[in-house]
Design brief:
Length: 381
């Protein structure tokens, strides 16, 4: 069988305390001899250091028993963040519902004054009348930090793929539903139900890091019933929910927002926007990524996805991602996203120097203007 891959291309682009966000998805697997169900939950945890750890706790009944947990580093950006992937396997009562939560109190310093975090995953495993099996959550991933220059409009089309064919909707986390500890929404961003997060040009006073705490839900495209132990429930509302939490950093203005100058532009053979790829089990899938920036220099690729992806640089603006899906991943859809980073130093007639990594300093008359630009592309594998 095959593992599917869907690509979604968009522009995007982060210290302090240490939390950079999380995301969790789940896949129901086999029904066991005793009637219990095995479910695999995959999550990302992003912190300043790879040595930092945290765990998801059961906050409801029917969570069953955790039978295994594997935690590995996905990728890291030096002096900024480290993201790890957790693969948790649970054995739960057949056709059950349960809730997992992640809590802590050390978000990185931010403009919307949030310190404590709370993320909630609502798992729904009752049998669906439309597909005759348990529900699978929407599939998504996110880099710990998306970056945008303060003078450039950007629409971040976040991942919103659902293996069951449901409609996926996004909203900000709600305090009254205990989906976040401090729920101040970022003032410089707007979020549509269609999972588009928009940024409009703003003044330099609004530059800095903003915490984004979202919830992604799957809605059936027709009224369905969920059954458990012979009982039934008619449903036309959200079936499950997953948290999507990360940082948007508004950086200093760039001289031009045109892609291919300071902001990198993707080139062939980089897969097309929203293309869907298929990866046979035990065979290596190779994804070539090429980018250019005429004024700046591309130098790094960062990614979020399965931890066993191998990345390599093939030269200026040329990168390769390789992934070999295992038998355990057969039939699943796995999200991958990556970012291309470029940097340049230019001299302008001004009397200050701004570093795009958000470390401003001053100088006299002519001084270098340093940019680090990130461009993000989302994949489903």
């Amino acid at each position: 069988m095959f593992v599917s891959l869907l690509l979604l291309l968009l522009v995007c682009s982060a210290q302090s305390s240490h939390f950079y966000g999380t995301v969790m998805t789940y896949y129901p697997k086999n029904t066991n001899a005793d009637g219990s169900l095995t479910v695999v939950l995959r999550y990302k945890l992003s912190f300043h250091l790879c040595s930092t750890n945290d765990s998801w706790d059961c906050s409801s009944q029917n969570c069953g028993t955790q039978t295994s947990l594997v935690l590995n580093v996905v990728d890291q950006e030096s002096s900024e963040w480290c993201q790890r992937e957790g693969i948790m396997t649970r054995r739960v009562p057949s056709y059950s519902q349960f809730q997992l939560e992640l809590t802590g109190n050390a978000w990185i310093n931010n403009k919307n004054s949030i310190s404590s975090w709370r993320a909630v995953t609502g798992v729904e495993l009752r049998n669906r009348s439309d597909i005759g099996q348990a529900n699978t959550s929407p599939q998504t991933t996110i880099l710990p930090v998306l970056r945008v220059p303060s003078n450039c409009r950007r629409d971040f089309h976040l991942l919103d793929f659902d293996p069951d064919g449901d409609e996926v909707r996004c909203r900000y986390a709600n305090f009254s539903l205990s989906e976040c500890s401090q729920c101040t929404t970022p003032s410089v961003l707007s979020l549509l139900e269609s999972c588009i997060l928009s940024f409009s040009p703003t003044s330099s006073v609004n530059e800095g890091s903003y915490i984004v705490q979202m919830v992604m839900e799957d809605f059936p495209r027709q009224t369905i019933s969920l059954t458990q132990n012979g009982g039934g429930l008619t449903v036309n509302s959200a079936i499950s929910k997953i948290p999507v939490q990360f940082v948007v950093r508004v950086d200093s203005a760039v001289p031009s927002c045109t892609e291919g100058l300071y902001l990198p532009r993707f080139l062939t053979p980089t897969p097309a926007n929203k293309a869907q790829l298929y990866a046979p089990v035990d065979q290596t899938l190779s994804i070539s990524v090429n980018a250019e920036a005429n004024v700046s220099t591309t130098f790094e690729l960062l990614f979020s996805g399965p931890h066993n992806i191998i990345k390599s640089s093939l030269g200026a603006g040329q990168f390769l991602l390789r992934w070999t899906p295992s038998q355990e991943e057969d039939g699943e859809s796995h999200p991958i996203c990556f970012v291309i980073q470029s940097i340049t130093s230019r001299t302008y007639n001004n009397n200050y120097t701004t570093n795009y990594n958000h470390r401003p300093f001053t100088n006299s008359d002519c001084s270098p203007y340093n940019y680090t630009i990130k461009y993000i592309t989302y994949f489903y594998i």
